[in-house]
C-alpha cells in the first residue's frame, strides 16, 4: 500500500508540473524569454511591457498602474527541476545590467498572482529595448519540506545570471 501511495503522489506532482509547464510554454510563445537550470531549479525569465495590477489598499483591491516612467515588467518563474512545479515562498533579489555592464536596477522580485501563470516579478525602467543580463539571487527557502527522501531539495543559496532581450513599453490602462 505504501509503495502504491508513493507512486500516486509522484504521478500527481508530475501532472501538476506538466500543467504548469504548459502555461509557461504559452507565455514563452508571446513574450521574450530565457531560461537556465541550476542545482534543483529551472529559472525562466520573461520580458514584457509594464502593466497594471490590483493591490490591496485599506482592505480593498484597487487597480494600480506602474510608477511613471516604468516601462518594463520582468517575470521570473522558478520551477523544481525534477517535477517542473512552481516553487512558492522564495525571496528573490536581482540586478539588471545593460550590454555595457552598467547596473540599471537592483530590486526585489516579489510573488505575483497571475490568472494562468504564478510568478515573481518587478516593474522598472530600462533605457531602451535590447539585451540585458539579470543576476538573480535566491536564498535557500525557509519553508519545511515533506518526505524524508524526495523532500531534500533547495538546500543552497543560488546565484545565476541570465541574458534576456527586454522590451520597453506600457500596456494601455485608460487614463493615467
Give a brief outline of the structure.
The protein is an alpha+beta fold and 176 residues long. It is built from one helix and eleven strands, in the order αβββββββββββ.
Task: Give an account of the 3D structure.
By secondary structure, the protein is of the alpha+beta class. It has a single domain (2-166), classed as Immunoglobulin-like (Sandwich), CATH 2.60.40. It is built from one helix and eleven strands. The protein has one helix at 2-30; strands at 32-38, 41-48, 53-57, 60-64, 72-80, 92-97, 103-109, 111-112, 119-124, 130-138, 158-166. The strands form three sheets. The chain has a five-stranded antiparallel sheet with strand order 1-2-5-9-8, covered by helices on one side. The longest helix is centred in the N-terminal third of the chain and has 29 residues, at 2-30. The chain starts with a helix and ends in a 10-residue tail after the last strand.
Amino acid at each position: 500500500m505504501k509503495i502504491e501511495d508513493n507512486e500516486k503522489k509522484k504521478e500527481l506532482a508530475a501532472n501538476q508540473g506538466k500543467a504548469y509547464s504548459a502555461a509557461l510554454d504559452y507565455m514563452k510563445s508571446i513574450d521574450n524569454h530565457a531560461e537556465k537550470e541550476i542545482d534543483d531549479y529551472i529559472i525562466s525569465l520573461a520580458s514584457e511591457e509594464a502593466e497594471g495590477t490590483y493591490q490591496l489598499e485599506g482592505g480593498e483591491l484597487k487597480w494600480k498602474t506602474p510608477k511613471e516612467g516604468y516601462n518594463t515588467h520582468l517575470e521570473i518563474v522558478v520551477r523544481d527541476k525534477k517535477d517542473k512545479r512552481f516553487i512558492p515562498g522564495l525571496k528573490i533579489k536581482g540586478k539588471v545590467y545593460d550590454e555595457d555592464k552598467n547596473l540599471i536596477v537592483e530590486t526585489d522580485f516579489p510573488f505575483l498572482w497571475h490568472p494562468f501563470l504564478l510568478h515573481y516579478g518587478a516593474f522598472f525602467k530600462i533605457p531602451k529595448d535590447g539585451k540585458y543580463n539579470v543576476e538573480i539571487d535566491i536564498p535557500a527557502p525557509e519553508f519545511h519540506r515533506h518526505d524524508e527522501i524526495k523532500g531534500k531539495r533547495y538546500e543552497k543559496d543560488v546565484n545565476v545570471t541570465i541574458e534576456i532581450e527586454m522590451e520597453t513599453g506600457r500596456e494601455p490602462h485608460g487614463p493615467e
